[in-house]
Design a protein that fits this description.
Residues 11-73 form the PDZ domain. This is PDZ domain-containing protein. This protein has a single domain, classed as Pdz3 Domain (Roll), CATH 2.30.42.10. It is 14% helix and 31% strand. The chain is globular. It is α+β, with helices and mostly antiparallel strands.
Length: 111
Amino acid sequence: MFGDEINHRGHLRLLRRHMPAQQGLGMTRAQLEPMRDGLGVRSRQAFEGSPAHQAGMQAGDEIIAVDEMNVQNALFHELRLSAAPGVSSTFRVQRADGTHDLTITRVARPG
């Protein structure tokens, strides 16, 4: 799970203390996970009412590109998908019914 997706207040305090570079970044509220051998990205969950959910992201979506940058063969732990609140990105996802472009605008972190 990406550090910017943590929403529990206790975890947020730890994030602010131990990962100051993450402060000021927005979040999509989608829980992402690595695919095969750590390459590629899949959506594990898009939290109800979140920017990712509102854009149409679903559990199991394979993210194949972000802002036209192919991420299929990128190492999951090296991807930097965070950005400031209000910044939108287009996530191209693959699922059983085809390929979809989802525009997700990040929101500010709570607290």
